[in-house]
Amino acid sequence: MTTVRVPASTSNLGAGFDCVGLALDLWLEASVTPGDAAPEYHGTIAGLNPAHDVIGRILRERGALADRHLVVRSAIPIGKGLGSSAAAVVAALALVQLLDGAPIDRDRLFDEAVDIEGHPDNAGPAVFGGLVLDATRPTKLVVHPSLGVALALPDAGVPTERARALLPDAVARRIAVDQAARAAALVLGLTTGDVALLRHGLEDRLAEPHRRHLIPGYDAAREAGRSAGAYGVTISGSGSALLALAPRDGTPRVADAMADALSHAGNPAVACTPAIVSDGLQLRTTTGPS
């Protein structure tokens, strides 16, 4: 059996639009064994039509699925801005490399995943784990240990294509300058734990103003999260999940407050407090008895 595990990821984190991502302790696992049985899907992808499966498609295109049985299990919510698509692409490409008998080349894997999926801020954490800044190359940073993640997960998702289509083609110079300062503050705040920098950096000026209406109850949930102790609340990726950064021991309270506010606004949601994971793609190959 050849198995790969890939973590979920939250991207943007406020002002780090399209260039900052963080790996979370929610995993997709894909395994292949000899055999010709139909693919199996479990967890958040239970009932998936194989024709819509990214992993199976990539394996077939690369000639890696013939006479092999694919089983995929995922705990990553779908359509919530938590990198489910990037995790699937990374898993498929990793399986291709392993089944070819080659050692995993994470740099090539990252480049190929971005070419296919288009989101380096999700592909980076999926491949390398932890906090990743996509600059001239994916650069792995260390999140300050005082920080934790709180999520509110609405039942309703937001299609990435719809969220992306809402973004303007150009922005005013003052917004671009402000966003650059906030992005720098975000990265420094994440690595140092500086609360003032985090609060500044978690405010996005590029995407969030155009997307917030897609999440009913967003404004109330943001205020509820802040009142519960969050340093800031923003949209995870393109949504629909809301992300807050807060003191680690305070994340359950923040997540509950955000989920309750969304639910009271008619947008049913649940709280989630996944750990930040330093590992990305994980590999396991086992040989059965001969």
Word description of this protein:
This protein is α+β, with helices and mostly antiparallel strands and 290 residues long. The chain has two domains: 149 residues, Ribosomal Protein S5, domain 2 (2-Layer Sandwich), CATH 3.30.230; 129 residues, Alpha-Beta Plaits (2-Layer Sandwich). The protein is built from ten helices and eleven strands. The strands form two sheets. Strands 1, 2, 3, 4, 5, 6 and 11 form a seven-stranded mixed sheet that branches. Strands 8-9-7-10 form a four-stranded antiparallel sheet, with helices on both faces. Helix 2 packs across helix 3, helix 3 packs antiparallel against helix 4 and helix 6 packs antiparallel against helix 7. The radius of gyration is 19 Å and the shape is globular.
